[in-house]
């Protein structure tokens, strides 16, 4: 038996699946190995709740399915869930004191679909409180840490998910992306993550932040593993009013994304040495202005040159309202958060203050004690812009800007390019506490991701380089596609990852 933990011997879900089905290793052995690694890496603070008994029960069930020869696609694959997906058994806290001891009586649709596919959950992952943040520093239970440098943030809000994958604790994890919260932590931790088209993955059972923006997406080491999870997670759900039945004429169900990915990959393979011949890559000039760090710009340029060597053509484009995405987002998202979080009143569930004078005082004290500073800040902003007299001036105006931002992307896709590429973040991961004196500084770092979320487009991040120096940190390349083209995006990313090895690097291989 090799010295390395069993669950890290396999570099892809497909490789581990083959070993499980050949009975070279059991799902229980894999789960136990991963649980030991989670305990050994407790200092990362990536996990908020681990229950070995629950995980081992799921692993034993997967082994029975494997032995019967009737195992579903993900039987025995170790994953974990961002702590905004409600789960039976494991606590669901949204990284907030408001929900510190809450356990859901039902599973989120995403959780249920992955469990039906045989995946073994190892627990719940740290995140920014109610998914509000860009560094995972707003968690009520302490920040998750970046495996590449534990003094650095892993990104947010899905920081625990990205850190767990980067550290090799799980093969994949779920995350949510409201304004970049899958793509940004994936970039800062050197792994891959995708946000699908809004409405393609059910939001049922996902703790709400911004209802018109929130979308679930997976994080894994490379594009092929993302296909495995995203294809399983996708599908129409009648319990979610924002769920789509059809994706541009194709039924929204499992198999859609995998079929598109396989078709694109076969097309690229057939093209030979220049598999991406004819692919037009739009490069927005607004993504390369002041504020972008030189080391990030250099890594993105190198990645674009790699794509050109694979046959793709670079096309300069303009997304003129890029800067407006920040004020538009930080009006719309807080407004929706203000509405969504009004349910936490100390009456039905969640934290209730120990002492109060009347119902209004109970609600006020419960919220003041249960919510953290960033959540309170966004609730106040959101409540303000929804007030009579300000609604038209702020909220409606932001929605108009949102439509113009979406139109900018549609114009680019219709006339100039097939995909859009650029940076995910202006810099590599900052150190924990760097922006403590200016809590809104992190908002500016979302400039390359917010417009895509406002438009509801699919986008992903893949590793494309590292900063220089004795403690190198990962850099991510963002790839944006038109609506419902997740399969194409993943195939384009896979072509890059077949030609490079950035996605194979681990913190131990610095």
TrEMBL record:
GO terms for cellular component: glutamyl-tRNA(Gln) amidotransferase complex. InterPro entries: Amidase, Amidase_CS, Amidase_dom, AS_sf, GatA. GO terms for molecular function: ATP binding; glutaminyl-tRNA synthase (glutamine-hydrolyzing) activity; transferase activity. The keyword Lyase does not apply. One of its GO terms (biological process) is translation. This is Glutamyl-tRNA(Gln) amidotransferase subunit A. Its EC number is 6.3.5.7. It catalyses: L-glutamyl-tRNA(Gln) + L-glutamine + ATP + H2O = L-glutaminyl-tRNA(Gln) + L-glutamate + ADP + phosphate + H(+). Belongs to the amidase family. GatA subfamily. It comes from the Bacteria. Heterotrimer of A, B and C subunits. Keywords: ATP-binding, Ligase, Nucleotide-binding, Protein biosynthesis, Transferase. Residues 32-490 form the Amidase domain. Allows the formation of correctly charged Gln-tRNA(Gln) through the transamidation of misacylated Glu-tRNA(Gln) in organisms which lack glutaminyl-tRNA synthetase. The reaction takes place in the presence of glutamine and ATP through an activated gamma-phospho-Glu-tRNA(Gln). Pfam families: Amidase. The active site is at residues 82, 157, 181.
């Amino acid at each position: 038996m090799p010295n390395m933990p069993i669950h890290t011997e396999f570099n892809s879900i497909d490789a581990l699946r083959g070993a499980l089905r050949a009975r070279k290793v059991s799902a229980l052995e894999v789960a136990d190995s991963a649980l030991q690694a989670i305990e050994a890496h407790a200092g990362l603070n990536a996990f908020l709740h681990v229950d070995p008994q629950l995980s081992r029960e799921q692993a034993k069930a997967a082994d029975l399915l494997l032995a019967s020869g009737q195992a579903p696609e993900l039987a025995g694959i170790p994953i974990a869930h961002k702590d905004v997906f409600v789960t039976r058994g494991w606590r669901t806290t949204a990284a907030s004191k408001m929900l510190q001891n809450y356990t859901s009586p039902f599973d989120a649709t995403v959780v249920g679909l992955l469990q039906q596919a045989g995946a073994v959950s190892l627990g719940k992952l740290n995140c920014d409180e109610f998914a509000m943040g860009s560094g995972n520093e707003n968690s009520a239970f302490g920040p998750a840490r970046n495996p590449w440098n534990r003094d650095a943030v892993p990104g947010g809000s899905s920081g625990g998910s990205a850190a767990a994958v980067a550290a090799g604790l799980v093969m994949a994890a779920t995350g949510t992306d409201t304004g970049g919260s899958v793509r940004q932590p994936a970039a800062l931790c050197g792994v891959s993550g995708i946000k699908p088209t809004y409405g393609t993955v059910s939001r049922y059972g996902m703790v709400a932040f911004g209802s018109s923006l929130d979308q679930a997406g997976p994080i894994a080491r490379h594009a092929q593993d993302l296909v495995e999870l995203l294809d399983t997670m996708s599908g129409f759900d009648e319990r979610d009013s924002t769920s789509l039945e059809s994706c541009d004429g194709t039924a929204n169900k499992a198999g859609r994304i995998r079929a598109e990915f396989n078709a694109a990959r076969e097309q690229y393979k057939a093209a030979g040495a220049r598999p991406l011949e004819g692919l037009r890559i739009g490069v927005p000039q607004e993504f390369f202005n002041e504020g972008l760090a030189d080391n990030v710009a250099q890594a993105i340029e190198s990645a674009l040159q790699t794509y050109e060597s694979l046959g793709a053509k670079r096309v300069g484009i303009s997304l003129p309202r890029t800067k407006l995405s920040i004020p538009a987002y930080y009006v719309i998202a807080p407004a929706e958060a203000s509405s969504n979080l009004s349910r936490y009143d100390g009456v039905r569930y969640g934290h209730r203050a120990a002492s109060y004078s009347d119902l209004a005082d109970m609600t006020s004290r419960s919220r003041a004690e249960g919510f953290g500073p960033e959540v309170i800040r966004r609730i106040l902003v959101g409540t303000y812009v929804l007030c009579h007299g300000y609604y038209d001036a702020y909220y409606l105006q932001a929605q108009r800007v949102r439509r113009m931002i979406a139109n900018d992307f549609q114009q680019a896709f219709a006339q100039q390019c097939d995909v859009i590429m650029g940076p995910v973040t202006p810099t590599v991961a900052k150190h924990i506490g760097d922006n403590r004196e200016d809590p809104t500084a992190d908002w500016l770092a979302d400039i390359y991701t917010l417009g895509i979320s406002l438009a509801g487009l699919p986008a992903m991040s893949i590793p494309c380089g590292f900063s220089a120096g004795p403690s190198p940190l990962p850099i991510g390349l963002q790839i944006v596609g038109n609506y419902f083209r997740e399969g194409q995006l993943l195939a384009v990313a896979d072509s890059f990852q077949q030609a490079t090895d950035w996605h194979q690097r681990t913190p131990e291989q610095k």
